[in-house]
Design goal:
The complex is a heterodimer of chains A (298) and B (418). Chain A has 298 residues and is of the alpha/beta class. Chain A contains 10 helices and 14 strands. The chains are: A alpha/beta (298), B alpha+beta (418).
Chain lengths: 298, 418
């Protein structure tokens, strides 16, 4: 078991004939993901890594019977069109490894997703991986790398950093544990799936015994995790690290979402609200794995 | 730069029918005088800087006539307020204020909203953070529906605004929202929204920032660095943006932390991946070191992009070391980073014997990448230490190594701290 990306999840790749789209579609398929179709307007009838290409999502869905998830490899300014199209064709889970997306486009996508009951991972999310089952996006890199870094096990991982969504599972593996599903929520100022959405899914997943979060300053996300624990929507062990204690107010570093705005979103605030909820907050990221190990033994 | 000056924000508000005081922006005292003549009334002369509390710091002054306006402008232009140089002043009619309101639109990223929120308050002229919540009326906007005139009226009605003021205030709120939407703002605030003694409503001051990723849709704004920062872009910021602009292959982000290095302990910092990059900074800070710049190259950038970033970082005068903080087990092949960094080090460090360098690079194709780093730096006169994924989270250890190398480097050159 895993969340969102499971054994039978049928995946479509939008922008499959592009540089990243074609390379990642082949890797995803090589890892075992059921990549059933790709879409690039004007390129219908071609194949990429043995995956049939269609002109529109509707065409792909009609031909394939049904599609559960889409991964969008399109430039930021083109993302809105791609995502609305996927939702209009009935796809309810969309992974968006796309940065520099105009904010108002994101807001429109979010409002439409609410209307359609769709889950949007990202934008700016490098992806999701359920080890041994499937991967969508950049996460995992090549099949060989994915097999080396992500091993199946009882820990769900949610990361606000793309790079750390590989690193945390690596340290968990080094500690002799493994991961159930790993997600990067995305770096854009507004994202479609955050802690408050994902933790209840891990709560329901029988294979997940604990969750690790790599947090960052800025945004309401770590506070959402604290609320989920407080309100008992998540009752399993939770270990959180929050990066960026040094950052001055108003300074943005790489991620557009990691900015301390209007005096809110500082590491200090996040850590205290998590601690009050009884979450295990660690001071350094290398303490995540040992803490999980200790909690899972108890 | 995505933040707008007051005068720029007011120009946008004017287009969406928000009344603004009569006036214009000046870069010379003579221009200020001419604007004051045109206004034909006492004027306010407002320094155009990105800082709150500029009034208290002396950045806003008044003049009774054009001659006085010229004098005041010559005093303000070129002066330093809150460490920022005043390059422009806004000269506009002085308002006879009766009441001050507030109107703002922000983005609420929480899962309940993920939408813009329009706020109105009867307590204007102060930081909205300090206003009690019962004095603020707010509405989360469904962007598929939009904000309507009667929504704006209802916001004002909730705070018992007198009936005769409702249409003008609602029009200002609606106009602000239209600007927010039309120019893809990240935030847009009118504070204060003023009622004059003559009974008119004006946007007396505003703060606006444009979403970085939407700047390309608004070339008319003339924003040269589409990046948020508390201060206007420095030369380094502009160079950094040139590396990024137009090259969508991977991300390069560089922010200068200090304009000029005047003391010891600064490191040129080159992180990989937002989250990981921060870890290194936290650790360096704990060792008493500071970063001259924050940088991040990630998302599978080309070697050329990494090289240009590393060059900019290494070229900063006064740094005592360079750290490649690859605190991630990266999914992408890391040899692009290795090649880019080696080329920059070879060009920048041949004349800096003993210069401290700590390189951490982990992830896909790590063995090959570390080999590139070793081969490429072995004949350099610098102090180079290279680490891989065995040390990926050894932030303390690596920061301590950086510190130790810097101390050796100082001793060697007879440099003393303090």
């Amino acid at each position: 078991m895993a969340i969102l990306l499971e054994k039978d999840t049928k995946v479509l790749v939008q922008g499959i004939t592009g540089r990243e789209g074609s390379a990642r579609a082949a890797f995803m398929k090589g890892y075992g993901t059921k990549v059933v179709a790709g879409v690039t307007p004007g390129r219908g009838g071609e194949e990429v890594a043995g995956i049939p290409v269609y002109n529109t999502v509707e065409e792909a869905v009609n031909e394939q019977g049904s599609v559960d998830a889409s991964v969008t490899f399109v430039p930021g300014p083109a993302l809105k069109g791609a995502v609305l199209e996927a939702m209009d064709s009935g796809i309810r889970f969309i992974v968006m490894p796309v940065e520099r997306v105009p904010l108002y486009d994101i807001l429109e996508m979010m409002a439409y997703a609410k209307l359609k009951g769709a889950r949007l991972l990202g934008p700016g999310a490098i992806g999701i991986i359920s080890p041994g089952i499937a991967a969508a996006g950049w996460l995992g890199g090549t099949p060989e790398f994915a097999k080396r870094v992500f091993v199946p096990g009882p820990v769900g991982v949610i990361s606000r950093s793309g790079g750390q969504s590989g690193t945390v599972p690596w340290t968990i593996k080094e500690a002799g544990l493994g991961v159930s599903t790993v997600l990067h929520i995305g770096t854009e100022p507004v994202v479609g799936q955050s802690m408050g959405d994902i933790l209840p899914l891990f709560q329901e997943d029988g294979d997940t015994k604990a969750v690790a979060i790599f947090g960052e300053i800025g945004g309401p996300y770590e506070e959402e995790a604290a609320a989920a624990v407080r309100e008992k929507r998540f009752t399993k062990s939770l270990v959180v690290y929050v990066a960026g204690a040094w950052a001055p107010e108003g300074m943005r570093f790489s991620h557009a979402s990691s900015i301390i705005e209007r005096g809110r979103g500082s590491a200090k605030d996040k850590i205290s609200s998590l601690k009050e909820a009884g979450v295990h907050v660690v001071d350094r990221p290398d303490e995540i794995a040992p803490t999980l190990k200790r909690l899972l033994k108890a | 730069m995505a933040r707008l000056f007051e005068y720029q924000g007011k120009e946008l508000l004017k287009k969406t029918k928000v009344p603004i005081p009569q006036g214009d922006v000046a870069t010379t005292p003579l221009e200020a005088r001419k604007i004051a003549e045109k206004v034909g009334k006492p004027v306010a002369i407002k320094s155009q800087i990105w800082a709150g509390g500029r009034g208290k710091a002396g950045g806003i002054q008044f003049a009774q006539n054009p001659a006085e306006a010229e004098k005041v402008a010559s005093k303000l232009l070129g002066s330093e307020i809150k460490n920022l140089t005043v390059e422009r002043v806004l000269v506009e009619e002085k308002l006879d204020i009766d009441r001050e309101f507030y109107a703002g639109v922000i983005i609420d990223a929480s899962r309940e909203a993920r939408a813009p929120v329009v706020m109105f308050s009867t307590e204007g002229g102060v930081d909205i953070e300090e206003v009690p919540s019962e004095k603020i009326a707010q509405m989360t906007v469904d962007v598929l529906r939009g904000l309507r005139f009667y929504d704006a009226l209802n916001l004002a009605i909730r705070l018992k605004v007198p009936t005769q003021l409702l249409p003008a205030i609602a029009q200002a709120i609606l106009g602000l929202y239209e600007t927010f939407k039309g120019y893809n703002c990240r935030t847009a605030e009118i504070n204060p929204l003023v009622l004059t003694k003559e009974g008119k409503i004006y946007a007396a001051d505003c703060r606006m920032s444009i979403d970085d990723s939407s700047v390309f849709r608004h070339p008319e704004l003339g924003i040269d660095v589409a990046r948020e920062s508390p201060t206007p872009p420095t030369e380094l910021d502009k160079i950094a943006w040139q590396i990024e602009e137009g090259d969508l292959r991977g991300t390069c982000y560089i922010a200068q932390m200090v304009p000029e290095i005047k003391e010891l302990g600064y490191v040129g910092y080159h992180g990989i991946g937002g989250g990981g990059a921060i870890l290194g900074v936290d650790a360096l800070n704990r060792q008493g070191l500071k970063i001259a710049n924050y940088a991040d190259t990630s998302g599978n950038p080309t070697a050329a992009k990494v090289y240009r970033a590393a060059k900019v970082i290494l070229a900063q005068a006064g740094i005592e070391g360079y750290m490649l903080g690859g605190f991630i087990v990266a999914n992408q092949e890391q040899w692009h980073h290795a090649h880019g960094v080696v080329k920059a080090l070879r060009e920048e460090l041949t004349n800096k014997p003993g210069f401290p360098v700590v390189l951490l690079l982990c992830g896909n194709k790590e063995k090959e990448s570390l080999e590139i780093l070793r081969e490429g730096t072995k004949d350099l006169p610098a102090r180079v230490e290279i680490y891989g994924s065995d040390n990926v989270y050894e932030t303390e250890f690596l920061a301590k190594r950086m510190k130790a190398l810097i101390e050796e480097y100082r001793r060697e050159r007879g440099v003393k701290e303090g």
